[in-house]
């Protein structure tokens, strides 16, 4: 599901106040990190991922890998911070996705 402009704008405003909960460092983006990010998205729907200074990864490449592997949406990339969104499959966690669908 491709996000529309208004939906992305809403998600960016929601993400503004949250802190990055994942940091990708010198080990790069590995399977364990991808699994953890997917689990966090299932519970929170909207998260930030921070790429540390000591990583060789490029934010855009990490975003495309995550988009392909866990089927999430890239809301925004600012420097080394990614904002990711994925609607939860469990109804009890579907807080943000219901608001997004209403837009």
Automatic annotation (TrEMBL):
Pfam families reported for this sequence: CRS1_YhbY
InterPro entries cross-referenced by the UniProt entry: RNA-binding_CRM (IPR001890), RNA-binding_domain (IPR051925), RNA-binding_YhbY (IPR017924), YhbY-like_sf (IPR035920)
Keyword terms: RNA-binding
CRM domain segment(s): 1-97
Name of the protein in question: Ribosome assembly RNA-binding protein YhbY
Taxonomic source organism: Enterococcus viikkiensis
């Amino acid at each position: 599901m491709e996000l529309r402009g208004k939906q992305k704008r809403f998600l960016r405003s929601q993400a503004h106040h949250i802190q990055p909960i994942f940091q990708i460092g010198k080990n790069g983006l590995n399977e364990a990190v991808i699994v953890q990010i997917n689990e966090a998205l299932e519970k929170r729907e909207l998260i930030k991922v921070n790429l540390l200074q000591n990583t060789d990864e490029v934010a855009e490449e990490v975003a495309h890998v995550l988009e392909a592997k866990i089927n999430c949406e890239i809301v925004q990339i600012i420097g080394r911070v990614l904002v990711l969104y994925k609607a939860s499959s469990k109804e009890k966690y579907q807080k943000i996705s219901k608001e997004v669908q209403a837009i």
